[in-house]
Amino acid sequence: MMVPSDEIREKALVVEDLVLYFQLTHGIVQAVDHVSFSLEKNRAVVVIGESGCGKTSMGRALTRLLPRNVNRYTGKVYIDGVETMSMDDETYREQVRWVKISQVPQAAMNALNPVLKLKDQVMEPLLLHEKGITQEEALERVHAVFDFVGVPDGFIERYPFELSGGMRQRVVIAMALITNPAVIVLDEPTSALDVLTQANIYNVLKRIKWEKGTSFVLITHDVATSSELADDVLVMYAGHMMEHSSAGEFFTEPLHPYAKMLMAAVPKLYGEEELQFIPGKPPSLLDPPTGCRFADRCPFAMEKCKVEPPTFRVGDRLVKCWLYEKEADEIVSSPEALAGVSA
Amino acid sequence: MGFLKSFFRELKYYPSAIVGTLIIVALLGVALYAVIAIPYHRAVYLWRGTSEVWYRNPKMVPPSWVNYFRTKKLPTTIDLDSRKEGEVQRTEKKLGDGKQIELTYEFDYTADEFPPEIVLYFYPTYAAKQPFVSGEWITPDGRKVRLGNFIVTQGYSFHMGQDKDLARRVRRMLHVDIPADIGLLVDPASLPKDTSQPVDHKDLRPLKGHYKLHLSIITFSPQDEVQAELLVYGGVYGIAGTDHLRRDLMVGLLWGTPVAMAFGLISALVIGLATMIIAAIGVWYGGVVDDLIQRITEINMVLPFLPILIMVGIFVSRSLWVIMVVTIALSIFGAGIKSYRAMFLQLRESPYIEAAQAYGAGNSRIIFLYLIPRILPMLIPGFISAIPSFVFLEASLAVLGIGDPVLPTWGKIIQDAQANAALYKGLYYWILEPSVLLMVTGLGFALLGFALDRIFNPRLRQE
Q1: Does A111 touch chain B (CB under 8 A)?
Q2: DSSP letter at B235?
Q3: Lower Cβ count inside 10 Å, N or C end of chain A?
Q4: Are residues B207 and B338 in the same domain?
Q5: Radius of gyration over alpha carbons of chain B, in Å?
Q6: The domain that contains B427 carries what CATH number?
Q7: What are the tens digits of pLDDT across the range B293-305?
Q8: Within a domain: B143
Q9: How far is B369 from chain A (nearest CA, A)?
Q10: What is the pLDDT of residues A53-105, one digit of tens each?
């Protein structure tokens, strides 16, 4: 295995040229197509995009929770400085899952085993990954982590069905947290919850970030709520990474036409602007168009867009659009070049 | 524990479950009692049934309680043994080199039917010359019938119904042709007036009253000794009756219970669990493993189950435990795999399974801690309902003639009855007793199984 450079080792997550294709009976779905980005320690990247644009698939590619019909799964993923794509499944399970990267799944409310008590459930990752830990030590850690995410102590003897949705969500987050991983992938952690509970959960997540220094990959299409936590923003469209910026810059002025239109479709608290929508629908990933995948719906589409744009670096930001060809500082299509670029 | 408590609280609301549980508890109690009261080796010894064990029992007679339902009462066995103190009057006097022993057997005969047999068993010890016996039968109305003179050897028995001389003397006394053991007890008033007509046995009545048998024994050496036992066999016996080998059916019925329970419980439990585990493994690993399990199941399902068992019974071993192992082996890859697989396939895609995978749970952990416990509640009612089917299977095999050669089982009792034409001879008790036990067993487990199904399967619940 290639020894990663110091630069990579200092980052929580480095993704280089990640590809994940699925095999269906009638073709290949290009769910994640050559995505590269990196994430500093103690930061949160929000992955946004429409439904079916490859957000969840990318999260799964990171935690290697793949369905059986994978066609192509390549690239390099460094989690906490360790290259994981070259590991076999068993090594990955033992050394990476929950040790370096944990995950709060999409349907977090159903992610608890209905026949296990919460304490046994939350203890599971500890018992699996910290060999030789005693039941008492594990229980102590469960108490601590429950306290941290705000689950009342008495709940540890309960079964999942005895909890409200918000509490279950906290339990699932507690479980993701218990082994102190470097990165937590949150796949729409609040999508089934009401706004008050959402706010509570985000407060918990913020607290984790501040106090534990954990990095987050937050997959969502709720741009407004996720801005609470975001340090970086990654815009995905039809399997491609369209833009990668720091949150401040992104929310002030998105670069990519798709990102601009996406932001225009988000309701604002102040102001009377009418909400915009993006006409058309995302292309089928079974047979994506050649060239820029957004070109069909893009008001700025040009002749050049029939050729797939490379990823340009504009300042600290990455954008995959021909519009920025002139102001670009650099073309970062090659993965090696990307590793040196921090967002 | 809390689970069990709430489970039993729930069970209370189903009267059928209470009845079922009571039946099962009673059966288990009987099984336990049988194993403790009649240890295994004793049970096998009794059921082998050599004549020394059972000679005092009448052959193929119904249980004693049938007398409660009859107007003409059947006799119970009268057993008078000179070796036992006080049962027989005995006098001895010296006579030449040896001695003369006088034995007087006295008994009251009150039944309305004749005994099936009357037999005298002799237990002589002698130096050289066999003792000489003459006997006299005295009826309540004072008639005397000479039994004849005979010499007794070791193990000699005198069957009154089979002795030709006695038959001739009885015929001479009564002027009709009837067996001697009936003739000795018959009421002369019930005999037909017209002696030229053949006798209708239905009209014959025994004479009730005090009978005496007088034996006069001469021995030829002072050390010689003769004891004799008179057995007037009854027409009923015990709680369960007897079979063609004079065996008390109670032994077979009692010991059939633990055998049936063990066969049913072990088969159902092993098959249920193994099927579930194999189905879970197949679903979880998928691919070649699943294909292999499914193909084995399909092949196994078209194999003829009963003929294979019969072949094993004939060519390999008829031992109950061998048959059980073969039954289990053939049943594991059965229809259960298919239905469990359908449940597991659905479960495999649950978010919590994926979550478990995400936090690094290994394959076996997922199978045993995440997949199987979810299906387990479905297994329990099925398991309870499956028990009687294996009890019936064991009985069916025994009826087909591949029952265990040494152990008494309910099925073997039915097979014995069938082989001895019990129904043709009107010996219904012989078939009905084991059949009722089988049916009660099935009923008990079915009642409990249905209730459990309601408890564990909320869709069937009546709110």
Answers
A1: yes
A2: S
A3: N
A4: no
A5: 32
A6: 1.10.3720.10
A7: 999 999 999 999 9
A8: yes
A9: 9
A10: 888 889 889 988 888 888 999 998 999 888 888 888 888 888 888 888 988 87
